Amino acid sequence: MTPSEAIELGDTDPASITIRITDEPVPPATRAVVECWDAMRIDKPRLFNGTLLSYTEHRGSEITVRRDSYQRMAVQAVDASLISPPVMQLSVTGLLVARDNAGKPHVFVGRRSHETRIYGGLWELGPAGGIDPPPVSHTSLNHLDVFRQLEIELHEETRLNIDWSAGPIVALTIDRHATAADIIMRMDVGSPLEDITPHAQPRKHRWEYEATRWVACHEFEQFVLDAPCIPPTISLAKLVGALA
Predict the structure, then answer these.
(1) Vertex 67, ends 63 and 70: CA angle to 5°?
(2) What's the CA gap between 98 and 216, in Å, rounded?
(3) What are the average pLDDT values for consecutive 10-residue runs of the chain, which has 244 residues?
(4) What is the distance between the alpha carbons of residues 73 and 157, in angstroms, rounded to a whole number?
């Protein structure tokens, strides 16, 4: 499995981040792509097609993306020769931090369902999800769009009813095995960990996570050694450990 790359951005001001969307049209699906996709859906019927944002590059505080399709990204994992240029979905991952009554910070993690496209059964920092493409008339997104996407993921993937605030964008992870680039935004929980109820239960009607939990930041580097985790989460272990 190809390791993930974590590009630490320090305490980057979220307001300085710009996601520029090029005017390239979504590449059409070839007959070979459609046939591969149909075969995949036999085993994973939850797969669905749609438009996504594909990461191209980043320079300083500007991230460049283009529009592409989920179908092409999924097929790419089966036969990369069918897809050109490659698809790298732009996503966002929350670094959700809560302190216990002793003041020790913990981060939220979820174990991915086996029904997900990739990394089923592995733990990840969360919430996380693809950044929805805006209407075609829009040529850019900003930190507020990233923030709103995280709010959606938080409510959809967990049963956490918490007060939290958006912090800095701390890193960008590039995972070429999963063909994804994730913006990592810190989120600080206002309530003590002991007051968050339930602490670690996924929504029963959601299928992204099989289980969730909180891990103390000072134990996080050991956690990724002991538990099966996705490469981007492993690549962020030192950054999370530094929060302790």
Answers:
(1) 115
(2) 9
(3) 78 78 93 96 88 94 94 93 94 94 95 82 93 94 90 80 78 92 92 71 60 94 97 96 92
(4) 22
